[in-house]
Structure formats: C-alpha cells, structure tokens
Amino acid sequence: MENATVETYKILEVCLLAGKIMLQSGAETYRVEDTMVRMAASFGILETHSYVTPTGIIFSADGEEPTKTKLIRISERSTDLKKVAMVNSISRQISSGDVQLHDALVELKQIDSANITFPNWSQIAAASLASGCFLIMYRGGWNDFLPAMAAGGLGYLGFVKFHRFVSIKFFSEFLASFIIGLLSLLFVKIGWGHELDKIIIGSLMTLVPGLLITNAVRDLMAGHLVSGLSKGAEAFLTAFAIGLGIAVVITFFKVGI
To answer: What share of the chain in percent tops pLDDT 90?
Structure first.
C-alpha cells in the first residue's frame, strides 16, 4: 500500500514537471493537459484530473486509494518551443514504453534546468533582421531597410537589458517601443529614413505577442476560459505598452520636443 502511494506521487511529479516545462515555454493549455493525462495513463493511472492556468497547475489521480493531488506554481513564462518539442518527445517515448518512470524524471529535470535558448546577441541580431524584413513585407522602401534594422535591434536590446533589472515585462516593452519610436523619428529627421510609419511598424513587430494571442484564441475555442482570458489580458497589456511607448514619442514630436 505504501509503495503504491509512493509510486503514485512519483508519477504525479513526472506529469507535473512535464506540464510545468511546457507551460513555462509557451505551450497551449490543452496541450499541457493532454500530455499530462497521456503520461499518467501510460504509467497505469487512468483516472486523472487536471486544472491548468497560466500561473499554476493542479493535477490529481483517482484509484483504489484515496485521491492524490499536487499543485505546482508557475511564476515565469517565456517562449521556448524547443523545450515543448523535447517534452513531447519524452511523452511519446513513455507511451511507447521506451522510457521508464525514473528515466523520464531524470530527463525532464535535465530539460528544466537546461539553458538552451539562443544567446542575447543572436536574438538581437535576429530581431534586427526581422525588423527590416517586416518593413519590406509592409511595402516599405528598401531605402528604409537599414533604419528599420537599427531601430528594431536597438529597441530589442533595450528590452533585454531592462528586463534583467525589472521583472515586470510591461515596463520593458514600454521602454523598447519608446526607443524604437525615438530612433525612427530621429532617422527620419536626419534624412536617413523616409517613411516613419513603415519604420515604426516594421521595428515593432518583434515585440508583438503573436504566440500569446494565438494561444489565447485557441484556449477560448477549446473551452479553457480562464486560461484564454488571462492570456488575452496579458497580450492586451503588451499591446498597450507598445502603443503607449510610441504614443509618448509622437506626442512629444507634435509639441516640438
């Protein structure tokens, strides 16, 4: 009886760790719940219940013994689809019987502690290049390609650096959009840039919460109302921060500052 209880808690730990990694890395709510349920079923627990929100996961297992329930808190969220794919791979291996409980726990802990994100310089370079490409996509001129790259790259650099000191993303996103708006305005003033609106729009696209908006809509359509509304609210705050930063720059420009 005691060994069975310990085994059940280990299974819950594995499932919750997998869900935590996926949720922190930008996975949809339905995918997190489905992965945890499938993993538990592969280990012999068929009756499970999960409740996933962007800030926490509750997972319980029913059986012959009293119901076992565990809660895990999600305090940080980012976008790391590689970790989501790695957890999905482990889940498939568990379902096929290729990975046992102890090995799965070890591998998940390694994924959780691993820092597999791209270094800051490559993220900033990618943001810079993407800004220029977005400008062209929105029918901007090639003569504004370099100004958009510079504004987008420096704006994203400000976002990364400021976010190290202030954990609230709203202020980091506001500062990044403010830098982008200010640089875009400066480039047009000195004659290096030509179409202010195209430069700003192209440079801002790297800050737009596209994955968050997609997940919010997907969760709402799947019936996960709490997760969908909370992700939608988070996306709205990001959009508000971006718009506010640009609005401040444009307002100062109109009054001659």
So the answer is: 38
Burial class (CB in 10 A: 0-12, 13-18, 19+), 102: exposed
113-to-62, 104, 108, 109, 117 alpha-carbon distances in Å: 30, 14, 9, 6, 12
Burial class for 129, CB neighbours closer than 10 Å (0-12, 13-18, 19+): middle
| Residues forming a β-bridge with 50 | 59
Residue boundaries of the structural domains of the chain: 2-113, 120-254
The length of the chain is 257
Please give the helix or strand (H or E) that residue 85 lies within, else none.
helix 81-95
Q: Please state the pTM of the whole predicted model.
A: 0.79
For residue range 164-203, list pLDDT tens digits in order: 887 788 899 999 999 999 999 999 988 888 888 899 999 9
Q: Find, among 124, 154, 146, 125, the residue nearest to 199 by Cα.
A: 146
Query: φ and ψ at 209, to 5 degrees?
Result: -80, 65
Q: What are phi and psi of 65, to 5 degrees?
A: -85, 170
Q: ∠ at Cα 11 (10, 14), nearest 5°?
A: 90
Residue 257: pLDDT band with limits 50, 70, 90: very low
Report residue 54 as tokens: 């962007």
DSSP state of 51: E
Distance separating alpha carbons of residues 127 and 150, to the nearest angstrom? 10
Nearest to 81 by CA among 159, 14, 24, 160: 24
Each residue's pLDDT tens digit, 94-140: 988 888 888 898 999 999 888 877 788 888 999 999 999 999 998 88
Tell me, what amino acid is at 204? L
